[in-house]
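testing teh design pipeline on a random one, pls ignore if ur not involved
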């Protein structure tokens, strides 16, 4: 694989991760790097799934060094949505999220009477 192939994989991965995060409703509490890693992994896994199902027919739009196949992109984004949701579930804690039912009250220590 040439350098342009790796560059294309990184760009597609970042785009797939971003699309997966934008499509998923609600607030995601994962960072940019986690989104990027999820996007690259989802792009690879989505391509493998598309080839296993014989969906990758090669009929796509070529832009610069990237071949854009809409069905494969949809599969990749679907995998990214699932992966972002799982990552959000695994990293979210109720204490860190601050979604308590009732707000915590500040307590004062009472001075002991002597």
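output:
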């Amino acid at each position: 694989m040439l350098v342009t192939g790796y560059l294309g994989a990184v760009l597609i991965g970042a785009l797939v991760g971003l699309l997966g995060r934008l499509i998923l409703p609600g607030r995601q509490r994962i960072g940019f790097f986690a989104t990027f890693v999820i996007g690259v992994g989802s792009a690879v896994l989505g391509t493998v799934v598309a080839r296993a199902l014989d969906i990758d027919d090669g009929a796509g739009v070529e832009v610069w060094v990237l071949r854009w196949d809409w069905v494969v992109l949809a599969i990749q984004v679907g995998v990214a949505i699932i992966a972002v949701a799982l990552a959000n579930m695994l990293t979210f804690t109720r204490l860190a999220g601050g979604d308590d039912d009732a707000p915590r009250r500040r307590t004062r220590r009472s001075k002991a009477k002597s």
